[in-house]
Write a structure and sequence with these properties.
Structural class: alpha+beta
Order of helices and strands: HHEEEEEEEE
Largest sheet: 4 strands, antiparallel
Number of strands: 8
CATH architecture: Sandwich
Radius of gyration: 21 Å
Length: about 160
């Protein structure tokens, strides 16, 4: 009887563990990279001089070759500046932006050798007030899988 109780408890414990693992939520996690933070601060200061204010910003852990979707609400007729800063050891950086109807409305690509190659920045004025999806991706040249990225959305104040 004691062995049956031990076996039953072990089975319940295993089922509980499986159930707990099945309910894990994938969450975006921040990362720290002093070089990227320094670049972000410089870019924010420069854009602030041009009248832009931060709407959203975040550091994010990324995996090489995989897009990291960022969803943002944009207001019709407002002037936005989007900035993506990737790991300096990556060889390719791309950002695609899609409107609510999944139509691509912006695309930029940079490579490692480009001036400011790890920074993609572009302006955008939406034609409708709706959510947009921004998909940054970077491919690392050293086969490093886990990378740091930084995104900023700024809005021009009139």
């Amino acid at each position: 009887m004691k062995n049956l109780t031990t076996v039953s408890f072990s089975i319940l414990l295993s089922i509980g563990t499986i159930h707990t693992q099945a309910q894990e939520v994938i969450r975006q996690s921040a990362c720290k990279n002093a070089d990227i933070l320094h670049q972000a601060d410089s870019i924010k200061a420069d854009l602030a001089k041009q009248g832009f204010l931060i709407v959203k910003e975040a550091s994010m852990t990324m995996e090489s070759e995989y897009e990291m979707p960022v969803i943002v609400p944009l207001v019709e007729g407002s002037w936005y500046q989007f900035v993506f800063i990737g790991d300096v050891t990556s060889k390719l950086y791309e950002v695609r932006m899609f409107d609510w109807n999944e139509k691509q409305v912006a695309y930029q690509k940079k490579q490692w050798g480009d001036v400011d190659g790890n920074v993609i920045s572009y302006s955008y004025i939406p034609k409708f007030s709706e959510y947009h999806m921004i998909k940054p991706v970077q491919v690392n040249k050293n086969k490093k899988k886990v990378l740091c990225g930084y995104v900023m959305l700024l809005k021009k104040m009139k």
